[in-house]
Amino acid sequence: MRGFAFSSIAFGIFTVLSSLAIYHLQIFDQLSQPLFWTTSLINSPLKSNMSVARISRNVVKKVFAVEQAEGQGARVRRSIGSGALRNLTPFLMLDHFRDVGSGAGFPDHPHRGQATVTYMIQGSMNHEDSLGNKGSLLAGGVQWMCAGKGIIHAEMPVVGAGVPLPVGFQLWVDLPKQYKMVEPSYQDLSPEGVPVAYPEGPEGPVSVRVISGKSHGVESPVRPLGGCWYFHVKLDKKGSNIFQDIPANWTTFAYIFKGRVAVGDTPTAYESYHTIVFSNEPEATGVSITAEEDGTELILIAGEPLDQPVFQYGPFVMNTKQEVEKALIDYRSGSNGFEKAHIWKSEIGGLRD
């Protein structure tokens, strides 16, 4: 996602860098030059065994998702990937799109080195890519796209009279370095294909849509390249609670988009449009979340940290500066995953002559 509408690119890597920077101003805070940062190193290995005791993690950071312009006439709320929460391995960006007018969207743009996860909670979105894939993502559906070595695609929300406004999320997840240059692939789930867990039974006040990972005995068929659990949690009644197990050492956060929640035993209430990042004590086995209002909803996401540097320029996410420069050369020359960079234009993106 994120409307990287590229104009023709002149020869030479520095011309490419200058051209791309123009189209990335809406994506990152400072793109007059390539944006580079390095993740902190994770020294301890992943521990998969979880204690029987339920010990909740706590909140260590709270970030308000500020609304900003994005793509072609769209607006999103961004938390991860903003200046306030730049580095949260393995997560690169989280956008909550909810204000998309007619003709607005995310036209033709490339990716390399990450997975993009699009989850619709209302309305629908059309998708098309340079490999010939196309279709529609409906409310409740998931598209888990591994960009791998390179793909160009367009994502255009469906807007019109009598059509529900498109609302959803897009998460960017860094790929482990050994998977950066794999062939692009998709794992799509229809609304009916997303399994649902009911911790207190089907008539209870808590439900969990299991987009990836495991929750209360229910497992998603999605198999990401790298550990990532993604849940849509609904807490229908004030005071309803969920304890979600989380693998030890994994980075974990929640984004609240309806209502308010409390975490663990603390009385602090966290409001809608906030991302809350959880602690990572070795004795903690998961996170306890309690609704402070009826009709509370959130996404709860956890991922295995990556012991690797992150060098990023817009939609290109690699491990070294040289790899990012190579991605730009490949895009300019139309090679190594970007063979159709200069000849393909989507039908839905509105960029055809």
UniProtKB/TrEMBL annotation:
InterPro entries recorded: Pirin, Pirin_C_dom, Pirin_N_dom, RmlC-like_jellyroll, RmlC_Cupin_sf
Stated family: Belongs to the pirin family.
Cofactor list: Fe cation
Cofactor note: Binds 1 Fe cation per subunit.
UniProt domain Pirin N-terminal: residue ranges: 74-173
Protein name: Pirin
SUPFAM superfamilies cross-referenced by the UniProt entry: RmlC-like cupins
MF GO annotations: metal ion binding
Domain Pirin C-terminal, first and last residues per copy: 231-336
Binding site for Fe cation: H109, H111, H153, E155
Pfam families assigned to the protein according to its UniProt record, in alphabetical order: Pirin, Pirin_C
Keyword terms: Iron, Metal-binding
Stored CDD domains: cupin_pirin_C (cd02247), cupin_pirin_N (cd02909)
